[in-house]
C-alpha cells in the first residue's frame, strides 16, 4: 500500500495526475452508492440496461463508467460494461468488499471536512468539527445513516487487515480478550473464532454495539463474547487478561490517548498484556498510505494522528506500560505488545 506515483512523468503531468485524484475517488464512491458492480455480477450489460436497473440517466451513467473503466474500475467492451477485479471489490457480497469504505470516504460529511484541510494545518484542530460543529462520534450518533457508513467502513477496513494480522500474531495465550473501542466486533470475533477456548468482551458506545450482534453471530462466537458499553475515558471492563486497542489511539492526541490507556492500566492484571494495532509511521520516505491516513485522522479529530515507534514507546511508558515487541504485518498496521510496568 505505497501508492507510489509514476515519477517517470514530467513534473506538471505528475502533479496534474495527483490533483485530479479526487475525481477518481468520488466516481468510485458514486459507483458504490449506485451498486453498479452488483448489477454486473452476473455478466456484462448495456448502458441502457444498467441505467434502467440503477434508475439513473443513461448519458451521465455512461460518462461515469467510461471514466472509471479508463483506470481499470469496470471494463467497456463492444458498448457493454462488465466488472473487473477492481470493481468487484465494490460488490455488497464480495468477501473483501470495500464498498462501505467507498461510501464513507465519498459521503458529504467526510467530503466537506476535507475541504477544511487548510484550517486543520493552520490550527491543528478538527476539520470535521469546523465543517459540522462537532466531532465525528457526536455527529454520527445524531445522524444514523452517516454513522452506519462510518461503522461499516471501519469494519470493512478491518476485514482487509485480518488475515495479515492472524498470519503475523498469535493471540491464543490470552484467556479473556477485551476489545476496547472495538467497533462492531469483527476483529475480536475473528480472534475468538481461531481460539475456541477463548472468551471476549467487546466494549463500545451503545449506538455502535447495536450493530455488533449480527457481526459477532456471523462468526459463530456469540456465546463466548460479552457486549459491554461505557466511556473508555473513564473505565473499561475488568476480568480480562488481554486488552486490545485496534485503530483507537490514532483518533486521539497524547493527552486523550493517555486517559484511555490509564483506564486500561487500572483494569489490567499484573500478568496481563496490551495489544495496540495501528499503523506505525516510518521516518523514511515512502509508505504513503500511513502518512495520508495521518492526515485523515487530523481532519476528523482534534489531535488525531499516526505515530512512529518511538512515539508509541514514549506514550505507553507514560501510561506505565513497557513495550515488549512490535510486529509488522503485510497490512498497513503493526501490532505493539506491551505489559504493565
Overview of this protein structure:
The mean pLDDT is 92. By secondary structure, the chain is of the alpha/beta class. Helices cover 49% and strands 16% of the residues. It contains 18 helices and eleven strands. α2 packs across α7 (99-106) and α4 (47-54) packs across α5 (58-69). The longest helix is centred in the middle third of the chain and has 25 residues, at 144-168. The two termini are 35 Å apart. The radius of gyration is 21 Å and the shape is globular. The protein has helices spanning 11-19, 21-33, 36-39, 47-54, 58-69, 85-88, 99-106, 108-114, 117-123, 127-132, 136-142, 144-168, 186-194, 206-209, 212-218, 254-267, 288-300, 309-318, and strands at residues 45-46, 75-77, 80-82, 176-180, 199-204, 225-229, 242-246, 273-281, 307-308, 321-328, 333-340.
SSE topology:
Elements: H1 11-19, H2 21-33, H3 36-39, E1 45-46, H4 47-54, H5 58-69, E2 75-77, E3 80-82, H6 85-88, H7 99-106, H8 108-114, H9 117-123, H10 127-132, H11 136-142, H12 144-168, E4 176-180, H13 186-194, E5 199-204, H14 206-209, H15 212-218, E6 225-229, E7 242-246, H16 254-267, E8 273-281, H17 288-300, E9 307-308, H18 309-318, E10 321-328, E11 333-340
Helix pairs in contact: 2-5, 2-7, 4-5, 7-12, 11-12, 12-13
Amino acid at each position: 500500500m505505497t501508492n507510489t506515483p509514476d515519477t517517470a512523468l514530467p513534473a506538471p503531468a505528475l502533479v496534474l495526475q495527483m490533483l485530479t485524484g479526487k475525481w477518481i475517488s468520488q466516481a468510485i464512491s458514486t459507483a458504490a452508492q449506485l451498486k453498479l458492480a452488483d448489477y454486473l455480477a452476473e455478466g456484462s450489460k448495456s448502458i441502457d440496461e444498467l441505467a434502467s436497473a440503477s434508475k439513473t440517466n443513461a448519458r451521465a451513467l455512461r460518462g461515469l463508467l467510461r471514466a472509471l473503466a479508463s483506470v481499470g474500475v469496470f471494463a467497456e467492451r463492444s458498448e457493454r460494461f462488465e466488472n473487473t477485479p477492481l470493481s468487484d471489490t465494490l460488490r455488497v457480497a464480495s468477501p473483501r468488499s470495500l464498498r462501505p469504505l467507498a461510501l464513507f470516504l465519498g459521503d458529504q460529511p467526510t467530503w466537506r471536512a476535507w475541504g477544511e484541510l487548510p484550517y486543520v494545518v493552520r490550527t491543528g484542530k478538527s476539520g470535521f468539527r469546523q465543517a459540522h460543529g462537532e466531532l465525528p462520534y457526536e455527529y454520527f450518533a445524531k445522524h444514523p445513516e452517516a454513522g452506519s457508513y462510518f461503522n461499516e467502513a471501519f469494519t470493512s477496513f478491518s476485514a482487509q487487515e485480518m488475515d495479515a494480522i492472524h498470519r503475523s500474531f498469535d493471540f491464543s495465550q490470552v484467556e479473556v480478550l477485551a476489545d476496547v473501542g472495538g467497533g462492531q466486533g469483527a476483529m475480536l470475533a475473528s480472534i475468538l473464532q481461531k481460539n475456541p477456548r477463548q472468551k471476549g468482551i467487546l466494549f463500545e458506545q451503545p449506538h455502535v454495539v447495536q450493530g455488533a450482534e449480527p457481526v459477532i453471530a456471523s462468526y459463530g462466537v456469540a456465546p463466548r463474547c460479552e457486549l459491554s458499553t461505557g466511556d473508555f475515558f473513564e473505565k473499561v471492563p475488568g476480568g480480562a487478561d488481554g486488552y486490545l486497542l485496534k485503530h483507537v489511539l490514532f483518533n486521539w492526541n497524547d493527552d486523550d490517548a493517555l486517559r484511555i490507556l490509564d483506564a486500561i492500566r487500572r483494569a489490567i492484571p499484573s500478568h496481563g498484556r496490551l495489544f495496540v494495532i495501528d499503523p506505525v509511521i516510518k521516518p523514511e520516505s515512502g509508505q504513503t498510505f500511513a502518512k495520508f491516513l495521518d492526515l485523515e485522522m487530523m481532519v476528523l479529530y482534534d489531535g488525531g494522528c499516526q505515530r512512529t515507534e518511538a512515539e508509541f514507546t514514549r506514550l505507553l511508558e507514560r501510561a506505565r506500560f513497557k513495550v515488549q515487541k512490535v510486529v509488522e504485518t503485510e497490512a498497513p498496521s503493526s501490532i505493539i505488545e506491551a505489559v504493565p510496568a
